[in-house]
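Hi R.,

Here's the chain you asked about this morning:
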Amino acid sequence: MKRLAVLVSGGGSNLQSIIDSTRNGILKGIAEVSIVISNNPNAFGLQRANKENIKNIAFDYKLMNPEEYDKQMLSALKDYKVDLICMAGYLKKLPDIIVNEYKNKILNIHPALLPKFGGKGMYGHFVHEAVVKAKEKKSGATVHFADGNYDTGKIIIQNTIDILESDTADDVAKKVLGIEHEIYPQAIKKVIEDKQ
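And the predicted structure, written out as tokens:
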């Protein structure tokens, strides 16, 4: 059974998808969410973790110096014997000490078809607005390994959605979120199976 840490900054709908998948989906019997970590003490993802009786920690980076934040996060990951880190709407860049310690063990989900529409500042609604503005015919979601830069690591899984001419950024966001919830557990399973 692989132990997952899920990192969230906001609502945590991908966290919920991963939890559900470990309880009665494709990750059942092969993975469990051991710890949920947030850089935002008010993240709804922490409430999701509480409801599911999963340990969770919020490190308020506004109140800590960066080195202390990084050390405490690394310490928590080690304390919970984490095998894989899953970034699920986690908006803070991971520090080198964690990226180096967990090389090829950190997954991130991005709401576009990387390498398009990735990079610093490209998250959430900003991505979908850029996609619509560029008059793209397709978008989707990508799960990739996090390598210390924004959205540049090796791609694990992608899936696409069609964009209609009448679609707004909100329409695209809804379609893409459905894909995200599907492919994140699939990507985790693939990584676990590839490492065995």
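The CA atoms of residues 143 and 157 lie 5 Å apart.

Let me know if you need anything else.
M.
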